[in-house]
Write a structure and sequence with these properties.
The chain is an all-alpha fold. Helices cover about 45% and strands about 0% of the residues. The protein has seven helices and no strands.
């Protein structure tokens, strides 16, 4: 399997870790310039999903590069700046992606993380248009019953059914 991540420079890796080299100033505009800022948002990831969907990519690709990427961005932001900063990942309402399933999943993820981590979910998650009849993102048909039983309230309420493993990240 080929590496599909982002290759960072040594300076960027050091900045992400919070380490500095003696006598070396971080470059202007560097990643560590402001540890209290949000670098990636659900809205930005939704725009990327919109491009993917418009380009004919299947919903599973949108799930991976939209929802799971937003989860990674949230976790990273919380590690750097705490839960309050993490909530900012969802402050701007994600634009419509061209897929009601993905739109529902963005709302479900924000609602789920807010409930789990104790912050107030943004009002846009309550939009009734951010729901589907039923969708099982990246869940093989043999695990659908499991997804219906395990899906967190925020996802189930919007018709998005996932297993406990669906949000597990390496």
């Amino acid at each position: 399997m080929a590496f599909k991540g982002e290759v960072l420079t040594v300076s960027e890796l050091l900045e992400l870790s919070g380490a500095t080299l003696p006598g070396v100033q971080p470059p202007v505009g560097s990643l560590a310039k402001d540890a209290s800022s949000v670098r990636h948002t659900a809205a930005g990831n939704a725009r990327h999903c919109s491009d993917l969907i418009a380009g004919g990519e299947p919903l599973d690709v949108g799930w991976r590069f939209g929802i799971l990427q937003t989860l990674d961005d949230y976790v990273s932001t919380v590690r750097r700046g705490g839960v309050e900063l993490g909530a900012e990942v969802f402050a701007e309402e994600p634009p419509r992606t061209g897929s009601v399933e993905l739109d529902a999943a963005f709302a479900a993820l924000a609602d789920h993380l807010a409930e789990r981590d104790g912050w107030e979910a943004p009002s846009w998650v309550e939009n009734a248009e951010r729901a589907v009849e039923s969708w099982y993102p990246a869940v093989p048909s043999i695990f659908r019953e499991e997804a219906e039983a395990e899906s967190p309230r925020a996802f189930r309420q919007r018709g998005v059914f996932i297993t406990e493993r669906s949000l597990a990240r390496a």
